[in-house]
C-alpha cells in the first residue's frame, strides 16, 4: 500500500486530487513513473505502508450492515 498526504487539500498530481488526510492506495494504482513523480513532489508526503489491518469490530459492523441491506431488516 502507498499512503499519500497532500500539503494542500485537493492538490492534483498524476490524475488524482490528493487529500490533506492520509489516503492509502493499492500498489498497482500508480506505475513506476508516476510513483517517481509523486515521491519527488514537495507538496506530497508519500510512504509505503503494510497492508492495513481492519479491526474485527469493523468487519462485524460491515457484515451486519450488509446482512441488513440484503434482507431489508433494520438494526435493533
Mind explaining what this structure looks like?
It contains two helices and five strands. The N and C termini lie far apart (37 Å). The protein has one domain (2-71). A three-stranded antiparallel beta sheet has the order 4-1-5. A two-stranded antiparallel ribbon has the order 2-3. Strand 2 (11-13) and strand 3 (16-18) form a beta hairpin. Helix content is 33%, strand content 25%. The chain is globular, with a radius of gyration of 17 Å. The chain has helices at 32-40, 56-71, and strands at 2-6, 11-13, 16-18, 23-25, 44-48. The longest helix is centred in the C-terminal third of the chain and has 16 residues, at 56-71. The protein is α+β, with helices and mostly antiparallel strands and 76 residues long.
Spell the H/E element sequence.
Answer: EEEEHEH
Distance between the termini: 37 Å
Q: Write out the strand line-up for the largest beta sheet, numbering strands in chain order.
A: 4-1-5
- Average of the residue pLDDT scores: 80
Query: In this structure, how is the largest beta sheet organized?
Result: 3 strands, antiparallel
Class inferred from helices and paired strands: alpha+beta
Total count of domains: 1
Instruction: Bin the strand percentage.
Output: 25-35%
* Total count of strands: 5
If helices are DSSP runs of H or I spanning 4 or more residues, what is the number of helices?
2
Radius of gyration: 17 Å
Low-pLDDT regions: none
Tell me roughly what share of residues is in helical segments.
Answer: 25-40%
Q: Judging from the principal axes of the Cα atoms, what is the shape?
A: globular
